[in-house]
Amino acid sequence: MPIVTIQVTREGTKPGADSVTADEKAQLIKGVSQLLLDVLNKPLEATFVVIEEVETGNWGWGGLPVEDFRRQRALKQA
Fold it and tell me: Which domain range does residue 63 map to?
């Protein structure tokens, strides 16, 4: 029985959204479950998918809080 955990930052992917939408979560669950079926022959009813949304203040990247890292990267690209 596979258990897949997906961690994402809690922020929207579209204007006005502040988190992953229910539809996006459903697509992730369906896609990951189908991948395990296709690759490992794991039945859909035996696969568990957990989506964890993490506040950006609790997410680090490149030794920095994610927002600081993104700002720094944007300055380098400009």
Answer: 3-77
